[in-house]
Amino acid sequence: MRITHEALQLIQDYSPRHFQRLQRHVRFISYQRNFSGGQWDSKTSTCIIDFSRYAPEFTSAQVSGDSYYNSYLMYYAGVLIHEATHAYLESLGFPYTKKTYQRIEQLCNIEERRFWWAVYEFTDEQKQESLQRINLTSYDQFFHLSLWERIQKMREIIKEMNDMNREDSTQ
Question: Nearest 5°: phi and psi at 14?
């Protein structure tokens, strides 16, 4: 997908350190539905991206003509960096557990913002405001879902995907 190539190029241009991290730790980038906008799969070394959580109208066909393309591109590049940071921390031996997930998510969010700061000129005050806006509530809610609740969420996502596929096939 064109946006993947451009997001990787943007990362390489503005943050070689993050680009190296991606190259070293991420084998695959996959676009599929998940619980959040991005997800790290350590078993397959895959960064899973789901734009539909934030932009339901996003499809590969539509994005090239979308007026928000640069926003999608920045979002996508940030998610890639966020998920690659999960991979990096995992490679250092930091497990993702109930005791560690908040600190890990905080670090991943900070790395994502560092990339944005490299692309756009942020003042120190804007950087501090950006850090203060990190909200871990959604991580808390997800992490504390029971197995049954996770299954229910996945069933909802699968149903949405099936509905979207039916709509696409009738058009």
Answer: -100, -20
